[in-house]
Design brief:
Two copies of one chain form a homodimer.
Chain A (H helix, E strand, L loop, with lengths): L8 H6 L1 H12 L7 E3 L6 E3 L6 E10 L11 H18 L3 E11 L5 H17 L3 E9 L5 E10 L15 E5 L4 H13 L9 H12 L5 H10 L4 E4 L4 H12 L2 E5 L7 H9 L4 H7 L6 E5 L4 H10 L5 E8 L4 E5 L2 E4 L8
Parallel strand pairs in A: 4-5, 9-12
Antiparallel strand pairs in A: 1-2, 3-6, 4-6, 7-10, 7-11, 8-10, 9-11, 12-13
Chain lengths: 346, 346
């Protein structure tokens, strides 16, 4: 869009370089007044919010690492590529503003596939009031890559860092955990020789949707920041156990989590149990849940009640506390043990 | 850095996920005061310049498409990944500020290779006063990908759009053209059975360096914007012919280029001629030159002289004019013909 486009020979006859960019430009909604220069110049130009801090994040989805086109549609991939970035802005307590879209397209990717990818991405952008300001398209000799860079805005005193927690703060998590992991496992099992279990398909389908199209907690994150209902916040992209550990370490505290309080997705728990695994351990370790973990001081109870009303329908569950005692513990059947390390990527 | 890191098993024993991020963080210079939150949280947070517009750009280098590790070192790739983005900010008349670095690392990429890539990128970042604010690291099942997103700042009335040119403006180009193309051709010929010619290697080496480590015209772009010595500007990433066409089309003018004025790199011209090709055509079409093309109105002659003194050592060559007559012409041996279409990517 802003930068040199090198696309696959496959696109040459169908649309050509400028045609492909034009195709994307035509899909974009009318530009808001703070987008001064949109796609078509060397770079995009925006007017930053007066007096606001700017949040910057980037996250890529790589075929064969973060998604498998047997399990996700191109529209799912477009949705998720923006969702994982929205989740980062939400976890800082900010509101998202401008996205840059960097596409690396393999030969196998048709124009229709690009259109579908944009369907998923632009629908979520519209709902999230995000403007696609520019980007870059290139050919990929390997996997499909969708890399998004996203800006957001927050007021100075409203920023939610990982390090803002204090001993005594209550820990809350939004939504349900373990669903994305169960959804992916079910998709993988379905395509293998392995039996897929006797569970209710409709309930597991919720888990599959959670894996394919996670709903970033954009509104919750912005509200937690704006109202100061939270001191610290982080998203669960690497699982709840990892998030608890990171907030506690960055805040210089310990943490204690109550296993019976964990909002494990019902169908996910049943799926884990059915295949003989421990639902608590898997839900704590499972990555790809884009829920928020946050720490709320006792004095902010009232503010949190207000936030809870405003995000009606999204459960916020009290799962434990930040503690003076520096260890990170899980209370289970009355006994304390070390919290699992969280999802390990390698 | 800000976002989930999924790295190759190869890094597990050597450094681990956090180790790899920590390794990068330790390489970063002390953060400037306008970087409020650097690597290590969900996202980076910066304090935008008061009253300034913000420029956003992203550009990726993909192994096998934009570079070949037989011809470029990892340090070259790191340098160029930032350089191509700096060139976009310069072409808008802005000054660069914050970079997000998105790395997709194949199994074959060792920790030493990542270090070298950072050497090249961070050295250029320091010289350009760019702060690496965050980023993302992931495994790649295919090529090495380095995707950079870069912000810059410019004042409202100082922005250089492609569309700002007027009939009668003089067209100037910085530096020399055709060098990157000649450098790449020489590298390719050297590894093939083809003879590499009798040319002076030292001079061709300048072309090779231009291909491997293009010098973005950061200072020139910022000066052209700040002084309003130019009306319109664009970088030559897709070649001079393409840039002339794009500025003229966006500005609603034609253009006339004088072939004898073109600052074709001497060794490149000799290389093209030696292999029986037309140096003018190749220099016009050759991509990967990160020089600037800009349009200067007659009344700004004095300003341009001031800029010329300030970028001492960098030639700015008058190559033609924007015209009322809408065609895009090349004057050669007294005869006019249509300017070549520029580098075609597919």
């Amino acid at each position: 869009m802003n930068t040199p486009v090198r696309v696959s020979p496959r696109f040459a006859s169908e649309a050509g370089e400028r045609g492909l960019i034009e195709r994307i430009r035509q899909r974009l909604p009318p530009a808001p007044p703070d987008l001064v220069v949109g796609p078509g110049d060397d770079a995009a130009v925006v007017r930053p919010d007066r007096g606001a801090l700017q949040i910057l994040t980037t996250d890529a989805l790589v075929e064969g690492v973060h998604f498998d086109l047997r399990f996700s549609s191109y529209a799912d991939v477009g949705h998720k590529a923006l969702a994982v970035n929205l989740s980062d802005i939400a976890a800082m307590g900010g509101g998202p503003r401008f996205a840059l879209l960097s596409l690396m397209l393999p030969e196998s990717c048709t124009l229709e596939a690009v259109d579908q990818l944009l369907d998923g991405l632009l629908a979520l952008a519209e709902r999230s009031q995000v403007t696609v300001a520019g980007g870059n398209i290139t050919r990929s000799p390997g996997p499909l890559v969708v890399d998004v860079a996203l800006t957001g805005a927050a007021r100075v005193r409203k920023l939610l860092r990982r390090s803002g927690g204090r001993a005594g703060d209550r820990l809350y998590v939004s939504g349900a955990i373990g669903a994305a992991k169960a959804g992916l496992e079910w998709l993988q099992a379905r395509t293998s020789a392995q039996a897929v279990g006797r569970q209710d398909r409709a309930e597991l389908y919720e888990c599959v949707e959670q894996y394919r199209r996670p709903e970033p907690r954009t509104r919750l994150g912005a509200l937690l920041g704006r109202t100061r209902a939270a001191n610290a916040c982080m998203d669960l992209s690497d699982g709840l156990a990892d998030a608890v550990r990171q907030i506690a370490e960055a805040s210089g505290t310990g943490a204690k989590i109550e296993s019976t309080s964990l909002p494990i997705h019902r169908a996910a728990a049943a799926w884990f149990a059915e295949r003989g695994a421990d639902p608590v351990a898997l839900a704590l370790e499972g990555g790809d849940d884009y829920e928020l973990l946050f720490a709320t001081p006792a004095k902010s109870k009232g503010r949190l009640r207000a936030v809870t009303r405003l995000v009606r329908g999204l459960p916020l569950t009290h799962i434990g506390e930040l503690t003076t005692e520096p260890s990170i513990r899980l209370v289970r059947d009355g006994a304390e043990s070390a919290l699992p390390r969280g999802f390990v990527h390698f």
